[in-house]
Each structure stands twice: as C-alpha cells, then as structure tokens.
Amino acid sequence: MDPLGARSQFVDVQTLPTWQQQIDDNDLQFIHEHNDSLDSQLAFPSPFPFRPDISRKIILHVGEVASLNCTAIVNTSNESLSEKNPVSDTVHLLAGPELREELPKLKGCRTGEAKLTKGFNLAARFIIHTVGPKYKAKYRTAAESSLYSCYRNIMQLAAEQSMASVGVCVVSTMKRGYPLEEATHIALRTVRRFLENHGNSIETVVFAVSETEEAVFRKLLPMYYPRSEEEERVFLPMIPADIGNSEGEPVVPERQIRIAEKPGTLEEDSDTEESLELDLGQVGTHAFARMEGDVDKQRKLILQGQTSEAAAQKQHQRNYNRWLCRARAEDLSDIAALKALYQTGVDLCGRTVMVLVGRNIPVHLIDIEKALLYFIHIMDHITAKEFVVVYFHTLTAEHNHLDADFLKSLYDIVDAK
C-alpha cells in the first residue's frame, strides 16, 4: 500500500450515512412482513428501545479504521503493543514511524485496558490502543469480561478526553480466536449502554468493519440500535437472554454482592459476621447494606487474638473470595499455556492428583500474581474433596525456582481450602 495514496483516501466521518439513515427497502420489507406475523399481545418492553438520538450517533462503515478522519481511532494489538494484524499494520503504515517510537513509552497495555497516543500522520488526532483477550471456551467468562473492558475503556477514554467522534475496529481479531458473532454482541451492547449512561459528549461512533464482518454487524445492529418502533418490536424476540448489567458488563452470579437486609441492626440469633451475608435477592427495598467495617482494624484484632476464630475464618474466606472473583475475571490463558499445573487423574484412594512441573515455570518472565490467580482458579473446585499434589523438581534451575514469598502468599490466601 502506498502511504501517500492512502492518505489521500481519508474519509471524513461527517460525510458517512448514520445507521438511522442506512435503512433501505429490503430492511423495511423485512420489518413489515415480520411485524404483521407477531402476536399483537407481545408488549413486554425492550431492554434496547428505539432511541433515534442514539441511532443517529452510530455509523457502520466498510473500510479501514485508520482511514477515518475523526477525533480518535482504535488500534487492536497485544500486551507489548507489537502484534502484527491487518488493523495494526495499516495504522502503523499511515501513522508513520513516530508511532512505533512512541509506543515503548506506554510500557505495554494489559488485556482489557486502553491507552492513548497521538495520531501522528493519521487524519485522526489520537489512537486508542487496546488488547483483546485470547478466546478459549474453557475460559469464556474471563474472555467476555476482558472484551467488555476493552470497549468500555475505549469509550471511557473518549468521554474523558471530550472526543466528538471515535472510529472503532473489531477488537477481537481472528488471531485471538474470538467467535465473531459473540464478540459483536458484546461490542454493540457495551457501546449502547455507554452512550445511554455517559455518552452525551460523544457525537459519533463508527464501527469500521471488513466485508466479512459487515454481515454480522448488519444482522445484530437492529437488536441494539433499532431504527423505528416497528424494528424494535420485530427484533425484540431475537435479543439474547444474556445482555449483561446496566453497563453491558457480563454478569457472573458468583460475583454478585451480598448485603444485609436491615442496615444498622443486628439479628438476635446470629453474630455480626453472619448477618452480613443475606442474599441480594432478599434485600427488598433497602438501599444500602451495613458496611464491613475497618478491614485493617479487624486484621489487627485477629493478630492480637482479640477476635473469635470463627470471625477470623470468615474474614479469611472473604479475602479468598475476592481473589477467586479476580481469577475468574482475568484472562489467564498465557499462564495456562505453560502447562505447569494440570489434573492427571486419581490415585488408588480415589483422590484427585494434580501435577506441578517446576521446569515449566519461568519465574522471572511471568506475572507471578497472575500465576497465583491461575492456581486459585484451577484448584478451587478440586479442594472440595481430598486431593494430592505431585511436584516435579527435575530440570529446574535458578530461573524457575519459585520464590518463598510466592509460597507464603499462596498459603495466606488458600490455607482454609
């Protein structure tokens, strides 16, 4: 591609038709046919009602995101911001060598984060760099949460920087294996919710897609951005059951908050700690729960032996649950790929056998905290019964000897399990 020729092809987003304007005769005929066949009593409200003010902000554009003349465009990359994919290759080509010189100053970008640089030779003033998750069905929940974070953080940066327009590419590249249709659901609903709740200053969001991606976006856009009340009605039954929370974030039942029913009062038949854990569904109309209290003070009392063993165990369990929630939300595929911890069957007594291979743990090259999260994630369901861990120390050297601090942290978090 000739950079000079490409620069002459920059597209002003203000000249592009909005999603509201892109409705054609085929769309109208589809809506008319299906609207007539719907039950007239189908009247439950749509979670994504017809909002012409929002539909007018959306543009579906088949073309390179780097070619858009808008306030910012999105570049999708890896954690070292060095990934080569069709989107990033074009962004670098049009932005020029200054972008490559600038990226090391960002010191990388974690999965789900978004970081900002200037646009350099692009028509866009800024580039928002983000890192999508690697998709594995086994870690689907973590991938969904990370992909949501990508789009949410992109929009958050745009709002914080008072950007009028932002060009968004498909963050989950083929290289990362995320199913396109599932990824598109997350992208569309996250942007919709952000525009509803925080997007007053954002005038235009352009979804820049390839011809392959266009078909999926055209199929799903009417669910989240209906262009009329009739289209809203027709596509309502097609909206998936899982649409996340009020921000579009995936909801994981284990991570829902548990709060007390009557703040400020204690149950006569239970101690203070037990009264903190009524299910959210039993809260009724109460707005807030009793606060957990000063955690540092509680820990100090535990150390001084001034609190009960039961209270100390509950405090420990809450700490463990916080780590477990993080473990379920993070993309841990890079740690899983090391194959340093895995289940290998059962022993003669029927106990689950876990194998830990020391030589597969490059201690100085990995994020030890992520390794700790992975250990918690894998072992949580196994520790419900008796189990055996076999540690292989052969072919190890200084670079893969676990530090004592890691083992201490592990013990402090999971000893109750």
UniProtKB/TrEMBL annotation:
CDD domains: Macro_GDAP2-like
SUPFAM superfamilies attached to this UniProt entry: Macro domain-like (SSF52949)
Domain Macro, chain residue ranges per copy: 45-225
Annotated transmembrane regions: none
Pfam assignment, any one: Macro
Gene3D superfamilies: CRAL-TRIO lipid binding domain, Leucine Aminopeptidase, subunit E, domain 1
InterPro entries according to UniProt: CRAL-TRIO_dom, CRAL-TRIO_dom_sf, Macro_dom, Macro_dom-like, Macro_GDAP2
Family: Belongs to the GDAP2 family.
Cited PANTHER family: GANGLIOSIDE INDUCED DIFFERENTIATION ASSOCIATED PROTEIN 2-RELATED, GANGLIOSIDE-INDUCED DIFFERENTIATION-ASSOCIATED PROTEIN 2
Protein name: Macro domain-containing protein
